TrEMBL record, chains A, B:
It is found in: Cytoplasm. It comes from Brevibacillus invocatus. It comes from the Bacteria. Belongs to the GPI family. The active site is at 288 (proton donor), 423. GO terms for cellular component: cytosol. The lineage of its organism: Bacteria, Bacillati, Bacillota, Bacilli, Bacillales. Its main location: cytoplasm. Keywords: Cytoplasm, Gluconeogenesis, Glycolysis, Isomerase. This is Glucose-6-phosphate isomerase. Its EC number is 5.3.1.9.
Length: 449, 449
């Protein structure tokens, strides 16, 4: 399973502090499992790998097979939690150039995201690559009124209906939404779209293993049974309340200790470009869960070795506010050997016969020690292989660590009150009925400078 | 030209502090232009838009036309400054799905990067998409011995020679390197590759407007004359030493004042997915220039509105260590209107007839005011349009602001001593001759935990 190593952070934490966290960690564990803490109506994810609806899961697989059979492209319309988890899984497990492969090699539809921004340029460009292709849509929104996905769905539903007619479009639109309420549920029922349910007790950033993520992930050909099995086994492994035995809780505790000792920014690092989107998912998970009441570690990411040549100087010598969490894989999916060169013009013949993975691992080890020497604690999260099973475990590992970590920090890790401020301003400025006074106030401020 | 507005940061800076910076800014200006400050042997970029080699520039355009004519793919081999600036320009100006467009629509080669990581998976996957295509290579390295690009060049040079023979490969390999020294220069001269020069007095992160960036940028069809003209006009505009008139210096000063007043993290924000890579270039520019001696703002990026649904909560309510610098474009390249919907099931008919760009701008205005209210100062950098000309200006604006900013901070903005630490460790662990003792020491530490 997942191996966690905080030995390269120990010297940054007073020796007795870890021990002193045993009790708070135990209390956080109890709050999660007895549902007695803040946000306790959003704990559906804790037992989800065991309690999910098996009939719906089968229906997801059937829908995925249908989409694969009749589509060149799947458009996934969603934002935040309805986007980042899926993107994380697709990038983590699929071919690095998935959409660029010939269809005959890929055997599954291209997958594009939309409704995750308001850029007219992106939208117009996206329609260019859809030209002449058979498109299916999976729109994901609890309410159906979140501005970004709602605009995108309005546009692409219209686009699809104009291409193939309203009747045929009904067979190409798949809706993931609330089980009974909201604008999107109402529309889906009226039109007869096939629907999947976003559980009431699972927030967006915890939803990747629900239909939110599972349908598009399955369309790409990933084994969602293995994904859920990995999460199920992780759930079992991280049930033990004792921090000495629970590496998930050790991660939660360690990052809080580092935070209490002045480390305000956590960099999720990997040496595989495919893992970057996983770090984006992790940024939402922790940033949105903990960034409140003026508190919380600022989550950022780095992709090494690329970013060693851009952010490496800062990490080594800049403000000492960083720590790193490195995601590493024991066995790579593929490897390539470095060949000898007769002229040895680049002086790299000392690497001849070695594999790229060997070089990548030595870069990781050397970097970790250099950064630790520079005052940057390193936490290591290692998985055996980059498979669907281990990704399922990783999702669960970080979800649970986040719940524990938020409780240790003293916040409600399952709400997001701060995201309303900009939404209200935006709707007011856009002239939504009912916001007239706020609109006038904001416009005065914008003119005043 | 570029419009800079710090009115939404003023309340975070004591009133007299900006005035007190007039003299230090003037001194920094003098250090840059009289070359009297630290790092003064790396100031070639200051006058580069005026002093670059016109004959070489023409040769770049000819080489680009040749590559366009005989290649389906250009492989760009480089890392750090030999990668991020090019990527920034390609993404900023080209089609959002450039590589995915049919060749007949794109009319220029696919462009892929390699040598910017050590991932065997990425490398193996890249060879999959090269299958059956005519490939040219532009390898970019001052020394030719930086491990990542050197390994990639070794592999793909061999790959190309096996495909088309050593003789034909000579016509497909373009080398950007030192004018006279180094392993890559030597090899290029021996093999007769066409070469372009990385100037001695311009560091990697300042090199995008040299052949380092210009060749691959030109291959993608971008007008590099316009790019250089934008930089040239920016050079002229930001020659004035008075901070009252020089918005480039105002940006440099404001971010230092925010830093001195407790803002330790700068988020470069945009509302266009195409600008993300520009922010990655900016991260290297500022992070590597200022992150030293335990000092420097930590640079990070956000792509709105996507990241409002992930990092929005943190920005609004988390630790108050952030400020934002928003890059915005007055007129979008393309726009899309929102249509009315008879049923108005999503309740968005109040937006009918409005354009996406209008909605995007209101999201930006509303978000800015919400974040300012939440304690996050906002700086605004606005360009009229996302054209090559304005991108050239932006590159120069930030390069010069970075030089001024680094001098205000009291560091040498043109060196990067911290990147040696991990490199030495890596080479030692890889068994490079001469590192035997260091290797033994590191291995003891790795075993010890």
């Amino acid at each position: 399973m997942i191996h966690f190593d905080y030995s390269h952070a120990r010297s940054f934490i007073p020796a007795d502090e870890m021990k002193q966290l045993a009790q708070p960690v135990f209390r956080a564990h109890e709050m999660l499992h007895k549902k007695t803490g803040p946000g306790n109506d959003f704990l559906g994810w804790v037992d989800w790998p065991m309690t999910y609806d098996v009939a719906e899961f089968d229906r997801i697989k059937q829908a995925a097979a249908r989409i694969q059979a009749h589509s060149d492209v799947l458009l996934v319309i969603g934002i935040g939690g309805s986007y980042l988890g899926t993107k994380a899984a697709l990038d983590f497990l699929n071919h690095s150039f998935y959409n660029l492969l010939p269809a005959s090699k890929r055997n599954t539809p291209e997958i594009h995201f939309v409704g995750n921004n308001i850029s007219p340029v992106y939208l117009a460009h996206l329609t260019d690559v859809l030209e002449g292709k058979r498109v299916s849509i999976n729109v994901i929104s609890k309410s159906g009124t979140t501005v970004e996905p709602a605009i995108a769905f309005r546009l692409f539903r219209d686009w699809l209906e104009q291409k193939i007619g309203r009747e045929a479009a009904r067979e190409r639109i798949y809706v993931t939404t609330d089980k009974s309420r909201g604008a999107l549920r109402k529309l889906a029922d009226e039109e007869g779209y096939e629907t999947f349910v976003i559980p009431d007790d699972i927030g967006g950033r915890y939803s990747v293993l629900t239909p939110v993520g599972l349908l598009p992930i399955a369309v790409s050909g990933i084994d969602i049974d293995a994904l859920m099995q990995g999460a199920l086994d992780a759930r079992m492994e991280y049930l033990v309340p004792d921090i000495q035995e629970n590496v998930c809780y050790q991660y939660a505790a360690t990052r809080n200790l580092l935070y209490n000792n002045g480390k305000q920014v956590e960099l999720m690092v990997s040496y595989e470009p495919r893992f970057r989107s996983f770090a984006e998912w992790w940024k939402q998970l922790f940033g949105e869960s903990e960034g409140k009441e003026g508190k919380g570690i600022f989550p950022a990411l780095a992709e090494f070795s690329a970013d060693l040549h851009s952010m490496g100087q800062y990490i080594q010598d800049g403000q000492r506010l960083l720590f790193e969490t490195v995601i590493t894989v024991k066995s790579p999916a593929l490897d390539v050997n470095i060949q000898p060169d007769v002229a040895d013009s680049d002086g790299l013949n000392f690497l001849a016969g070695k594999s790229m993975d060997y070089v990548n691992k030595k870069a990781y080890e050397g970097t970790m020690l250099a950064h630790v020497d520079g005052g940057v604690p390193n936490l290591i999260v290692e998985i055996p292989e980059a498979t669907a099973y281990h990704l399922g475990s990783l999702f669960y590992f970080f979800e649970k660590a986040c719940g524990i970590s938020g409780y240790l920090l003293g916040v409600n890790p399952f709400d997001q009150p701060g995201v309303e401020a900009y939404k209200a301003n935006m709707l007011a400025l856009l002239g939504k009925p009912g916001y007239e006074l706020q609109k006038a106030e904001l416009e005065v401020r914008l003119r005043a400078k």
